[in-house]
Amino acid sequence: MAGIQLERLTKVFGATRAVDGIDLTIPDGEFVVLVGPSGCGKTTTLNMIAGLEAPTAGDIWIGAARVTDWEPGERSLGMVFQSLALFPHMTVFENIAFPLRIKRVAAEEIARRVRTVSDTVHVGHLLGKRPATLSGGEAQRVALARTLVVQPTVFLMDEPLSSLDAKLRVEMRTELKRLHAALRSTFVYVTHDQAEAMTMADRIVVMHQGQIQQVGRPLEIYGDPANRFVAGFFGVPAMNFVEGELRPETNGARFVAQALGATLPGHSIVAGPASLGIRPEHVRLADGRESWPATVSLIEPLGDETLVFLDYGGPASLVAKVDAEEKLAVGDRRSFTLRLDRVLLFDGTTGGRIMG
Amino acid sequence: MTAAGTPAAADGLRRWLERERVFKWVPFVPVQGLFALLLLPNFLLLVYLSLLSWRITRGAWWSSAFTGLDAFQRALEDTRFLWALGRTFAFAAAAVPLELLLGFGLALLCRRSFHGRRFYTSVFLLPMMIVPAVVGYDLSMLLIDQGPFNQLLSLLTGRTITVRWLSEYTPAQLAVIGADVWQWTALAFLVFTSGLAGLPEEPIRAARVMGASRWQIFWHVELPLLKPVIAIAVILRSMEALKIFDYPMLLTQAGPGNATETVAVYLWRVGWEFARVSDAAAMSLILLVAVALYSLVAIRILRRERQRLAEEGAA
Amino acid sequence: MRRRGRWLFPVVRHALLLAWTAVTLFPIYWMLMTSFKHAGEWVTWPPRWFPHEPTLVNYVKVLTPGTSTFELGRQTLKILKPIGDSLIVSGFGALLAVVLGSALAYSWARFGTGGRSYPYNILSIRMVPPIVIAVPFVVYFVTLRLLDTYTGLILVYVATCLPYVIWMMLAFVEEVPVELERAARLMGASRFRVLRSVVLPLTASGLVVTFLFVFILNWSELLLAMTLTNTEVSTIPIQLNKFQSANEGRDYGPQAAIGTIATLPVIVLGFVIQKHLLRGFSFGLLRK
Q1: What is the pLDDT of residues B69-106, one digit of tens each?
Q2: Which of A67, A98, A151 is most worth mutating to test chain B (most B CB atoms within 10 A of its CB)?
Q3: What angle do CA C237, C238, C241 make, to 5 degrees?
Q4: Which domains does chain C have, with CATH numbers?
Q5: Going from the N-terminus, what domains does chain B have, and what CATH number goes with each?
Q6: What would the mean pLDDT of C204-226 be, rounded to a whole number?
């Protein structure tokens, strides 16, 4: 059982800084998800923790040991790869047994442990088959079993579910969480899918362009994003953004945009360009003290809710998430309000969150 | 699609060709025709000739008397022929594994990128491109008693070496094998380089994370995955190695004595120098049977590996 | 647990690679040098690593028109005509083989014509030692009056390299996604149009590689050329074999010149197709 610590970890490829001096502490037993768009550095970071890539600078600690120079095999890790990396020429049994064979464990011991582990993940009936004959879900479990059989201190996973179809993915997510609860080992999980990050993580580490944007619990990340990137990355459909300007007023500030103006109470802020962010579920179709007129331009029914695209005169439509019972048609003229207590402001130049 | 004024006949012909059932046979007709006109009568002629006892000096072949299996009997009793046959297989058995091992070793060394890799790869592929006859001639020049090769050996060992490569029994055989190895290690290098490059990366990484040593990864993961490549290399090279003709001809003229007389050379002599065409025909057929057995096995292995690769690739 | 010092391995690697480089380059170097030596320097003890008086005499001798002769213990080798003959025979042989073979490869890849085993059956042609077909071919050609003609040799070369063409082009054709052809046909293109506008451009590099490979194959071929030609047609490898059995008066210089002339274009071509050779040579057994 061990926690992980990354200290000023950097990886440079030629002229690109794939990972730019990140610091991170992962407590023992936590399920941490590294999430971000492609190229953000999350896989490179994972590979450095695994020892598959050597850092250009910085240090990695697993437990109390400084493993920066250690070979991958010395770090006592279990890793599941995106392609699963099952050995195609070996049977399922041989695949799972392989890590034990390398360490020259006795044959009976190997057989026992392989059987135990394969029962845990329900692949006991597949032991004689070859990877090519397995379904996506079965192959997943075999890859898991192969990591479990050596009882590693830390589990690393590089987008393991991305090759599965949607239904299977949801099932496997639950299984992984159950596994984590049972083992209580440290899990480091990499994905580009924000929904996966939200459902699985104890804590989320959001990365972008080699740097950590924010670390926090899922609801923190969702409700209290540190910058515009994090706010826009999480949430489906994405947060609405309106570009405009902040002007300080006597008791608060006024946000002014092309077709929108709102007084935001309790914000003592410096004037300047800013973005206003509001999530679709916080846009209401109603009249109110501050409401604006709009025309419905598109309706997307989701079943339990409906997405409504509102043309209000600004450069882009606002998306509102409304109850499915609402009777709407394209071309309707409706008013909408914003839940001002849920409005988020971001600096127009840096993208950082403006608190107030 | 059709221009106004195109004659109806050409149009009709085109339409007819477009039909899949016709279209797909279009290339086959000339090819099969070529084979039918060239190879089939050829083979029949071979069989027929072997049933005569014809020499070129005895007039036209179609008026030569039928003597049945006499030529075959003579062939099987011809120790020189049997020796040549055995010698050819022995040469292949010596040369092919050697060049495969060398080629594999070189491919392994050149696997990761490093300074000068491109230079080495280009150089190593050179010998493959050279006309075999030139190789044979070239080495015959190098290997003369007072030649540069002996001098190099003398330099390296500090003693004066004058091995008579071209005029003594075993050295001559080594020279022929050496020529084959020199030229065709390059092909093994080519095939193995591409095979190594095509190995899937993630199973190897997984093995590294599991703590497998380099040797364990090589033996348990990479080598099994390379089986199809090894199969191609062995099949390709052994197919060609059994035919060697150019090296013995140019290096040693199949000498000294018959030391390097491969079966191809001997048959050529029987047919052209001794003009015993029927005997040559009979021996050719025997050779064909020997090679055919070998090739059938080889092709079957090729098919099986191709199949296995398709299965594994689905993983 | 530090990573082991990695300095030793590169040194050993370079040593081994340099050793084989020396082995590879030495014969080529020697032939090149000999071609520039005049007769006195051919066989010396100790051998001269570099001609003391480099000369172009060998090349001049060899490239002036005339036929190779052997008289009074003296050989004269001429390769002007043989160069032409080799070009004709190799070039047309390769061209015809590529045209026929790629069409066939396409047909098999898309329609399975000839049956699933067809490529394997074709490969078995290649397994036959040429000497086996040489014997009857001579008789056959004499009867057909094709002996010692360009046509005869070209036809034989086409037949012998078709297997390679088919296998190589198969690899290249299979890389073209069928969907592209289907899309074109849906747009109204005829099959021939699809070949011309979709398949041909996408396999162009493959065609070039295959052509060059087969050209090299034909260019280097000795046995069939020897048996099926006499005076009218004479390829370069044949010239090298002439007079090899002579024990005195071997013309090392001119022969080295011939060797160099024969080899240089092939080396250049070989360089060009090196990278692409891998794809074609895989027999469908190399993972992408």
Answers
A1: 888 888 888 888 988 989 999 999 999 999 999 999 99
A2: A98
A3: 95
A4: 80-281 (1.10.3720.10)
A5: 64-314 (1.10.3720.10)
A6: 89
Measured between CA atoms, the residue of chain B closest to residue C12 is B109
Select the more confidently predicted residue: C285 or C125: C125
Please give the structure tokens belonging to residue C18. 């340099």
CB B202 within 8 A of CB A83: yes
How many Å apart are CA A64 and CA B95, to the nearest integer?
56
CA distances from A150 to A116, A171, B204 (A): 12, 24, 17
Residues found in chain B: 315
Q: How far is B73 from chain C (nearest CA, A)?
A: 18
Average pLDDT in the C185-193 region? 80
Cα–Cα distance measured from residue A345 to residue A278, given in angstroms and rounded to the nearest whole number: 9
Only one residue has tokens 């011309």, namely: C196
CB A343 within 8 A of CB A275: no
pLDDT of C170-181, one tens digit each?
888 988 888 888
Q: Which range, of A203-217, A242-256, C64-78, C154-168, averages the lowest pLDDT?
A: C64-78
Q: Across chain C, which distance is largest between two alpha carbons, in Å?
A: 79
Cα A146 → chain centroid: 25
C81 CB within 8 Å of a chain B CB: no
B174: left (phi over 0), alpha (psi -120 to 50) or beta: alpha
pLDDT digits 0-9 by tens, B259-273: 888 888 888 888 888
| Domain identity same for A156 and A266 | no
* SS3 state of residue A154: strand
Query: Does ipTM surpass 0.85 in this model?
Result: no
What is the distance of C-alpha B194 from the center of its chain?
20
A57 & A165 share domain: yes
A50 with A161, same domain?
yes
Contact A132 B314 (CB under 8 A): yes
Cβ of C23 within 8 Å of Cβ of B182? The answer is: yes
Best A67, A79, A82, A89 member to test B by mutation, with max B CBs in 10 Å, is A89
Q: How far apart are the first and last CA of chain B?
A: 45
Does any CB of chain B come closer than 8 Å to the CB of residue C219? yes
**Are A16 and A69 found together in one domain?**
yes
Query: Is B315–A131 a contact, with Cβ atoms under 8 angstroms apart?
Result: yes
In terms of domains, do A114 and A179 share one?
Answer: yes
Q: Which of B123, B124, B125, B161 is nearest to B143 (CA)?
A: B161
Q: Do B123 and C21 touch (CB under 8 A)?
A: yes
